[in-house]
């Protein structure tokens, strides 16, 4: 048969998985999962938004007054008389409902940090669980937990109760994020992973969440809307059909994971059904057996290799420099990204419009950067990182020094949107600098550092209590120092051969890991 593909070319599972109907089904499922992750991760952008205090009794506060100046006057007034506050807000947040204003608003920021800590712990716990018990059941359990506790959290009677429920959601959400990334990489065609994960990502869902928040108008309704809107993910993870040729559950376990766990018959069955669902009738059972045998051989070789641990990331002075600089880059990006994210209400304009603009700018930047990287050889990692860092610095400085609201607003949103590219570029640099045995470990280490920074990021804008411009000065220093460290210590890695081995001595390491210019 002329269309028959030679089995000799199908050396791995990647050779079997191609674009088809199952890929479409997987993309639909992934979109609901990403919406769940984004909705619960960004929930406190709206639920933790501080209102503007317009009056305190008969005392009116001018539009040019800063929030810290207003609060100082309120404390002075409260010392002499009790006055009722008139608040202005776009969204009925926890701050508004539970009356956490001025210095009491810090309790809401502390709540956000605790919730983010839950996400860090959840990613570590459920990442291990998915390796032991499978990607699909872990995803199903985590998204079900997010939906259930999201509904329960909407009935919270106070901030403490809401924090407890939202932290539990953070645990499940962190597990979702960690597990889904691995699952999607293992299930999508190799050459289509980048554009699909760019298309289905946080950026477009930021816009969708803004619309959901606009029509919800308060945090309780938003929690319910997020849970209801993402509940189809549960059904898709358990999807069963009798109207299609497969006549069974369409949400399959990762065949790679099944092979790793020695469940060969299940792996064969899953691959057979996926290829059939994708319309690949040219794939025979013998060809699938050959692929599984090849995967088993690769797995056996990996198990026979030396085990590597976190401390091997610091094996030599050069590797230590790389991991420290890249870790700082992730830390700085998270502090800038989430510090601004959870203080979005401080920007001029509507919180809904700002988030829609953020999503559009961020999505456009990701698409343009991906296209430029693919088509232009000169657009390497150092050029890309420098460009993104400058695009962070200039808007932040401009937004700090310009009084015109619209310029300050757009400048800050531009800086905010650029941070997604810093994550991508830094992650690529780590993958291309570290040898094969340490590559996954390096990426995981950077992710943990970034998530730890997210815990502290909501506290960043408390610096304004000491000096009003202090938070933006801190953001500028993070961006500037990241740019300097990266340019000094990180070499260009685009189109360079990936290092394969970890040398046993520092001297040989410098020889083997040196990248050609």
From TrEMBL:
It is found in: Membrane. The keyword Transmembrane applies. Keywords: Membrane, Transmembrane, Transmembrane helix. The chain crosses the membrane at residues 21-43, 107-126, 138-156, 162-185, 194-215, 221-246, 319-340, 406-425, 445-464, 470-489. It is a multi-pass membrane protein. Residues 32-494 form the Major facilitator superfamily (MFS) profile domain. One of its GO terms (cellular component) is membrane. Pfam families: Sugar_tr. Its main location: membrane. GO terms for molecular function: transmembrane transporter activity. Gene3D superfamilies: MFS general substrate transporter like domains. The keyword Transmembrane helix applies. It comes from the Eukaryota. This is MFS domain-containing protein. It comes from Elaeophora elaphi.
């Amino acid at each position: 048969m002329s269309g028959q593909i030679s089995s000799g070319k199908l050396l791995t599972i990647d050779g079997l998985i191609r674009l088809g109907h199952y890929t479409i089904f997987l993309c639909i499922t992934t979109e609901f999962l990403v919406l769940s992750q984004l909705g619960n991760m960004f929930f406190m952008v709206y639920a933790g938004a501080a209102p503007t205090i317009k009056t305190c009794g008969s005392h009116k506060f001018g539009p040019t007054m800063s929030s810290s100046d207003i609060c100082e006057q309120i404390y002075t007034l409260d010392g002499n008389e009790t006055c009722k506050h008139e608040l202005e807000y776009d969204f009925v947040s926890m701050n508004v409902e539970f009356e956490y204003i001025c210095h009491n608003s810090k309790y809401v920021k502390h709540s956000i940090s605790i919730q983010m800590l839950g996400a860090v712990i959840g990613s570590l716990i459920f990442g291990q669980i998915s390796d032991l018990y499978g990607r699909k059941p872990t995803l199903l359990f985590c998204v079900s937990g997010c939906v259930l506790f999201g509904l329960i959290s909407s009935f919270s009677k106070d901030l403490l109760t809401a924090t407890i429920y939202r932290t539990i959601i953070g645990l499940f959400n962190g597990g979702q994020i960690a597990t889904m990334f691995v699952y999607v990489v293992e299930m999508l065609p190799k050459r289509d992973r980048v554009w699909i994960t760019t298309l289905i990502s946080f950026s477009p869902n930021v816009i969708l969440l803004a619309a959901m928040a606009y029509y919800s108008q308060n945090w309780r309704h938003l929690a319910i809307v997020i849970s209801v809107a993402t509940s189809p993910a549960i059904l898709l993870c358990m999807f069963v059909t009798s109207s299609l040729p497969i006549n069974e559950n369409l949400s399959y376990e990762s065949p790679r994971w099944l092979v790793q766990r020695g469940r060969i018959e299940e792996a064969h069955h899953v691959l057979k059904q996926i290829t059939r669902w994708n319309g690949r009738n040219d794939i025979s059972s013998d060809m699938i057996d050959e692929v599984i045998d090849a995967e088993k051989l690769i797995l056996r070789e990996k198990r026979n290799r030396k085990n590597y641990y976190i401390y091997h990331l610091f094996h030599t002075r050069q590797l230590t420099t790389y991991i420290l600089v890249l870790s700082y880059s992730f830390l700085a990006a998270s502090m800038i990204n989430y510090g601004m994210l959870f203080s979005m209400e401080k920007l001029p304009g509507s919180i809904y419009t700002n988030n829609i603009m953020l999503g559009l700018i961020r999505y456009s930047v990701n698409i343009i950067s991906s296209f430029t990287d693919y088509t232009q050889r000169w657009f390497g990692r150092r050029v890309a990182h420098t460009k993104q860092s400058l695009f962070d610095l200039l808007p932040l400085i401009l937004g700090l020094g310009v009084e015109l609201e619209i310029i300050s607003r757009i400048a800050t949103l531009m800086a905010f949107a650029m941070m997604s590219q810093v994550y991508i570029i830094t992650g690529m640099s780590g993958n291309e600098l570290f040898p094969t045995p340490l590559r996954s470990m390096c990426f995981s280490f950077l992710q943990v550092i970034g998530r730890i920074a997210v815990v502290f990021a909501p506290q960043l804008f408390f610096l304004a209590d000491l000096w009003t411009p202090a938070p933006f000065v801190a953001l500028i220093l993070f961006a500037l120092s990241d740019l300097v460290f990266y340019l000094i210590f990180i070499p260009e890695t685009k189109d360079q051969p990936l290092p394969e081995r970890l040398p046993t001595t520092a001297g040989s390491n410098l020889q083997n890991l040196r990248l050609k210019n």
